[in-house]
């Protein structure tokens, strides 16, 4: 079924299902029900069944879901049954932390390139990578055919970095800078701003 026919809110829940299923599989669980899965992640069983039904039938009534099979299918649907190379722009504290994170590969991602415009950072190591000059970003990302970029620069630089990533052929951007990016149709942006989530939580505090 074409992705464009699936609401984005449904797609946004699929990684949560996949994460929960992978956790259950690591614990040695082989089958689960929509009820059990829903209790595990805080989503109703009816919603889970409705979301999964957008892509076909994965379980049998009374028998539930085979976890290994459903993991395989969700990875296929989310296209993480392969390794996606990524370019990281910004080699500050956050960029270094992300470059050192070891969990990307097991979920289908690998940081292949890291860039910065600071001469003091260029040539230094970040994780297993050498920080490269941001002036060479477009050329090198094009050469590697990378489609995913991560932005960890200050807000004042983020739009220019996004423009360069898009010029290089990147079509998916994970933006850690606290600014809304202007991007053309066909480029998907996800924002990671802890301040927004903290402010959302303090609403509920006394």
Automatic annotation (TrEMBL):
Chief subcellular location: cytoplasm
Alphabetically list the UniProt keywords.
Answer: Cytoplasm, DNA-binding, NAD, Repressor, Transcription, Transcription regulation
Q: Which residues form the CoA-binding domain?
A: 79-180
Concerning Pfam families, the annotation shows: CoA_binding, Put_DNA-bind_N
Against SUPFAM superfamilies, the record matches this protein to: NAD(P)-binding Rossmann-fold domains, Winged helix' DNA-binding domain
Q: Name one GO biological process term.
A: response to redox state
* GO cellular component annotations of the record: cytoplasm
Question: At which positions is NAD(+) bound?
Answer: 90-95
Q: What are the DNA-binding region positions? A: 16-55
**Any GO MF annotation of the entry:** DNA binding
Q: Which InterPro entries match?
A: CoA-bd, NAD(P)-bd_dom_sf, Rex_actinobacterial-type, Rex_DNA-bd_C_dom, Tscrpt_rep_Rex, WH-like_DNA-bd_sf, WH_DNA-bd_sf
* Localization: Cytoplasm
Check the record and name the NCBIfam families matching this protein: PRK05472.1-3 (NF003989), PRK05472.2-1 (NF003992), PRK05472.2-2 (NF003993), PRK05472.2-3 (NF003994), PRK05472.2-4 (NF003995), PRK05472.2-5 (NF003996)
Report the family membership.
Answer: Belongs to the transcriptional regulatory Rex family.
- Subunit organization: Homodimer.
The protein's job, in short, is: Modulates transcription in response to changes in cellular NADH/NAD(+) redox state.
Give the protein name, as stated in the record: Redox-sensing transcriptional repressor Rex
**What is the organism of origin for this protein?**
Anaerolinea thermolimosa
